[in-house]
Amino acid sequence: MSSELLEGFVSSAKASISVILVLAYGYVLRKFEFVSQEGETNISRLGTKFFLPALLFSEIGPLATVHNLKTYWPIIPLSLCFQSVALVVALLSHMVGMPQHYVPMFIFNNVTSLPLLLIDALAATGGLDQFLTGDKTLDSVLKTGRVYILINALVGNLTRFALGPYLMKTHSKAWYQSYHDHPEDENFIPQIGDIALLEEDGVTEPPSLKDKIISSLQRTKDWIVSAINPPLMGGILALTFGLIPWFHKELFGSGFLSPISDSINNVGKLFSALQMLILGSHLYSKKGSKTQAFPLLWLFTYRFILAPTLSINVVYFIRTRWPNLMENDSMLDFILSISNTGPSALTMASIAMMADLPSEVEGEVSRILTFSYAVTPFISVPITVAMWAVRQTR
User: Fold this and answer.
1) Phi and psi of 48, rounded to 5°?
2) Which of 4, 33, 108, 297 has the most CB atoms around it within 10 Å of its CB?
């Protein structure tokens, strides 16, 4: 157990240090003005609207097949289940005073780069040898593990960019201000949830039923329009082309459309490094207010202790209670057990920009992510527990 804990600690430490170093490069580049304020804004916007959709398209497309959805279906409901629990916890925490921008950071953890780095490091140190069964080689087990991670990332990415910007927005009295900005506009329709604010300001006449219906429809339309953002569109297009056999073969295989997917893949690879550089740049340029200690500690407690406790126990329960429900694969159990573990996704910085948060809040999001990756080596504990739990079911 101690050797496994050390292996997990070393692997996660390497992964987190590599992230912190790139953040440091971005901080230094901004400090010495190799990156200007305008350049920082342009690169951030370009990453969110172009590089990130390309990355999601190239990651999701090749895996979006009917066969994969049939074979790896348990990953989808379990991923959604873990996210739903995190959503409830985050909303309850927000009700007792946790800032709004923390909500999606509870729900959406790093489901791609960090777990991929971790299983590669574990393979290099012999930590994955215990998952070798029958005639399987280390390479085949590692390849299967990567597929499991990417299927889970497919679900995480789609939900993250569909709901993340909405969940991160600060729900304040912005409507109240807009009402006073339009005092003579007779067509201005108040939001239903803000009637109490009108009454406090001396406006006692409630909106009519027609106004309520129009307001509800308008809000629904606005939500749909805001939810269809570029990253989400990249994922939807990947699913669409991936699930159509002819397009999947010609676009993501070796067909005549493959140069298109290759070019999109090359563009998408630019996102991760640029995202981390700009995140580091934000640490210098967007100082903002100090990060509150208690919400940060609560976020870490959930992401590194409570969340993995949930996923490990759920997988253990399913495997012992209904052993034939899922494919009998130790690597599948392990990936599902750690899928809910780890720091918030680095793309939270892009979601903060999409949510059009104030500059000081964007700066705080950058600092939260930096702190999250600084403590990432502690992920070695749930990784070790997950390994132990998987062995107990064999």
Assistant:
1) -70, -40
2) 108
